[in-house]
Amino acid sequence: MATTILKAEGAASVEYAARIEHVSKSFAGPAGQQLVLDDITLDVAPGEFVTLLGASGCGKSTLLNLVAGLDRPTAGGITTDGRPSLMFQEHALFPWLTAGKNIELALKLRGVPKNERRGRAGELLELVRLTGSYGKRVHELSGGMRQRVALARALAQDSRLLLMDEPFAALDAITRDVLHDELTRIWAETGVSVLFVTHNVREAVRLAQRVVLLSSRPGRVAREWRVDIPQPRRIEDAPVAELSLEITEVLRGEIRRHGQH
After folding, report:
1. Cis before residue 218, ω within 30 degrees of 0?
2. Of 16, 89, 119, 211, which is the most buried if we count CB atoms within 10 A?
3. Are strands 3-8 and 18-29 parallel, antiparallel or unpaired?
4. Phi and psi (nearest 5°) for 204?
5. Which ranges carry the ABC transporter domain (predicted)?
6. 111 to each of 82, 97, 114, how far by Cα in Å?
7. How far apart are CA 237 and CA 168, in angstroms?
8. Which one-letter DSSP state was computed for residue 201?
């Protein structure tokens, strides 16, 4: 089947930030082609926060890479409202640049004039609550601060869709909880759409308006949940815990059904 990936030019009013239509992805393996994603159809609305949840190896990161345009699906099509920005689990900051210069690099690549970059980088550092950190080198920043700079750099791309691949997985619980609060605030302030990959059920419920569960390989949309719990939420809130337990039971069933442990 022919594959088409379209990048919308950002019309004044669009129905979606990302549209994934009947997408499948296979990779060559020792036993031939291995199907990783199978007939995925999913929309992300403008300004929506969606978490992709599933067991390790179910294809969550593969799907995110396809949406980002880093790879092409074997079948189906993906349309996005402009070019997405991508944030990884590792901060991927350039260690020879300061926090501010890492952000300025993204602005430069976007075509922002040189005389505007420093001011804009300062505004983004302020948005992620790192005011005064413009001149700090990467080694001077804590893990949480590095992820804040990485988030500011992603936002510097001025994309309507932010793709996040387990960006807080390597952080300690307290730092992760603080960054959950910060991401929720930034999402509300900017109106950006977010597609967030995680294998942490409570994190998925804590952050999202909608949780999408992928089955074990090959990844298919197994089930979706609308999260109507008002923000701000906490990991330990009873409604978050209750919905997390429900989703966990379904996830366990998917894992058992596919013979994974």
Report:
1. yes
2. 211
3. unpaired
4. -60, -45
5. 18-243
6. 15, 19, 9
7. 20
8. H
Report how far residue 45's alpha carbon sits from residue 19's, in angstroms, rounded to the nearest whole number. 9
CATH code of the region 14-36+47-84+159-261: 3.40.50.300
Residue 162 has pLDDT above 70, yes or no: yes
DSSP 8-state code for residue 79: E
Domain boundaries, the chain: 14-36+47-84+159-261, 92-158
Cis bond upstream, residue 232 (ω within 30): yes
- Contact (Cβ atoms closer than 8 angstroms) between residue 22 and residue 38: no
The single-letter code of the amino acid at 192 is V
Entry field: residues in the chain: 261
Instruction: Identify residue 57 by its one-letter amino acid code.
Output: G
Say if CB 58 and CB 44 are below 8 A apart. no
Rounded CA-CA distance 1/95 in Å is: 43
What mean pLDDT is reported for the chain? Answer: 89
Show contacts of 92-97: CB within 8 Å, 24+ apart: 92/150, 93/138, 93/146, 93/149, 93/150, 93/153, 94/138, 95/137, 95/138, 95/139, 97/137, 97/138
